[in-house]
Specification:
Blueprint (H helix, E strand, L loop, with lengths): L1 H29 L5 H17 L17 E5 L5 E5 L5 E3 L2 H9 L6 E4 L13 E2 L8 H6 L4 E5 L5 H9 L4 E4 L4 H15 L2 H22 L5 E6 L5 E2 L6 H8 L2 E3 L10 E2 L1 H7 L3 E5 L13 H7 L4 H4 L3 E4 L1 H4 L6 H12 L5
Parallel strand pairs: 3-4, 3-6, 4-5, 6-7, 8-10, 8-12, 12-13
Antiparallel strand pairs: 1-2, 9-11
Helix pairs in contact: 1-2, 6-7, 7-13
Length: 344
């Protein structure tokens, strides 16, 4: 195709030259050729015309054209959003989302995070746009993101609507189980153009879950109370990934049938349900496993429970189990070990 185009272009140039040779002969026969000004104008016209139709290839522009067309995705709430292919400017509005994006090797594409996004360490160097519950709308808009990712836990419905009205796509995540978190990671890989890395990470997480399930299936289930806080006493309900973690690890949560996501329990309820193990939330970011709750007071309040009598009050890394991201499997393995320490 390129050769034929080149030949046609050259043929046109030859035709132009032949026509001007005819014109030249006519001009000379009239005697006008004797004027120097006439000869100069004539040759300038020939030069311009021939150079404009010379033998050249119709090459495409040398700069590569990158297809950044928009694609439609459905988020965890069933909302349809249009996102530019492989977005380069992403804002995360939750620590779990930030961890996931960095795990998908999107370090350079993440341009801003919340003040609570402390993992990995590189995330702390990113632009801050406020905390998880009250992000700065003006700052988000000024950063011109191609994609904003939020979680339903942040309760940012109003902000989501405001960003949508400004044509800024917002993807909402809402995982409710451990496998739901794994599925979320796969979907985020699709939205951000990191499908291969997301599938690799998700497959590795699924394999670790299967190993824990296989181990737990051979062991007796123990009753568990997971304590988020003490005053008032808050635990995790049926439709939470925290309850799912306990089930996968071989336990049975004493609040596992509660409809509220984070129900409030009385002291009498806990004593009546008599947990074998109490899992205690630790301070976020605590490297020493410092418990968020007053363990001495817990022992006094629940002295008659098997958990206290058998000294099974176990701190669990909150960063691993409270954030629905890749490290949730680290939390699952820690809980499994806490429930059945005698099992390899």
């Amino acid at each position: 195709m390129a050769l034929r185009s080149l030949v046609r272009s050259c043929e046109r140039s030859v035709q132009v030259v032949n026509r001007f040779n005819g014109v030249l002969a006519t001009v000379k026969s009239t005697g006008a050729w004797a004027s120097p000004d006439a000869r100069l104008i004539f040759w300038l016209v020939i030069l311009l015309v021939v150079s404009g139709s010379g033998c050249r290839r119709n090459d495409p522009p040398s700069a590569a054209v990158i297809d950044r067309s928009r694609q439609e995705f459905t988020d965890d709430l069933g909302r349809h959003i249009n996102v530019v292919s492989s977005p380069r400017r992403i804002i995360s509005l939750a620590p779990s989302i930030t961890e996931t994006l960095f795990a998908l090797h999107l370090d350079n594409e993440v341009i801003a995070v919340t003040s609570y996004c402390d993992y990995p360490a590189a995330a702390q160097k990113k632009e801050r746009i406020g905390d998880t519950l009250t992000p700065d709308l003006e700052k988000i808009v000024a950063l011109k993101p191609e994609l904003v990712i939020v979680t339903t836990a942040s309760q940012l419905e109003a902000l989501t609507r405001q960003l949508e009205s400004l044509s800024i796509p917002v993807y909402v995540t809402n995982p409710r189980t451990v496998r739901g978190i794994i599925g979320m990671i796969r979907r985020l890989g699709q939205v951000t153009g990191r499908v291969e890395r997301a599938n690799e990470l998700a497959t590795e997480m699924e394999e670790r879950v299967r190993r824990i399930e296989s181990r737990a299936s051979l062991l007796p289930r123990v009753s568990v109370l997971y304590l988020l806080q003490l005053d008032p006493l808050i635990t995790a309900g049926k439709e939470t990934f925290l309850n799912d973690l306990i089930n996968l690890a071989g336990g049975r949560s004493i609040s596992g049938e509660e409809k509220a996501d984070y129900p409030q329990f009385s002291r009498e309820t806990v004593l009546g349900r008599s947990p074998d193990v109490m899992l205690l939330s630790t301070l976020h970011g605590s490297r020493s496993g410092e418990a968020l709750l007053d363990e001495k007071r817990l022992r006094l309040l629940f002295a008659s429970t098997p958990a206290v009598r058998n000294n099974r009050l176990i701190p669990i890394n909150s960063d691993w189990i409270d954030r629905p991201g890749p490290r949730i499997i680290d939390g699952l393995e820690q809980i499994a070990q806490a429930l059945h320490p005698e099992s390899p």
